[in-house]
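Sample entry (211 residues):
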Amino acid sequence: MKRGIFLFFCLTLMIASTESFAQLSKKEKKEWKKKAKEFKKNPASLKQLTEDKQVADNTVTTQTTTISQLNSTISQKDAKIAQLEDELAQLRSQLASAKAELEQLKAAPVNSMDFSKGVVFKVQIGAFKNKNLAKYFDNNPNFGGEARDKEPQKLTIGIFRDYWEADTFKKYMREMGVKDAWIVPYRDGQRVEIKDVLEGVVGDKPTESAN
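Predicted structure, serialized as tokens:
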């Protein structure tokens, strides 16, 4: 039995290491022959060596599988990173486009027909207690007024960005018999005092009374 194990080990070594064994020097061959004799005398050591080799081979196989799995995971993560970088580039492009559109909107001229923002001037033609024309206020931007509980209803005609155009229209109204016509200013849709908006909009023209 011992002889059979020894022959099997020698045969295995010869098959697996024929090329490398042929390259051994005489001294190395002598040393390995000595080891072979030792294994012949102690088959338990040969058995332990064989088992250790099998464990090592199994470990190598397991680690090779693990490395293969890790490489696959890395490849998947690299693909995901590439996808995210592509999406990030698209988002940056969209952001740049949005910023460009915003700059264009900022540079675009203000719609002269939108009187809800900024300072505008209207000509008030009177305040009436017994006349209710509020239903017309929202239908015509050139006709409006203020209706408050227990107060006379104030009516205005015309809406102007330029104070002097409003002033000219006020004079026309007075010439047509509306003696109480006078200019009322609004800022962002809220009525304000005339003194709060005249500076910077009147210019160098002679100033007249707002009444």
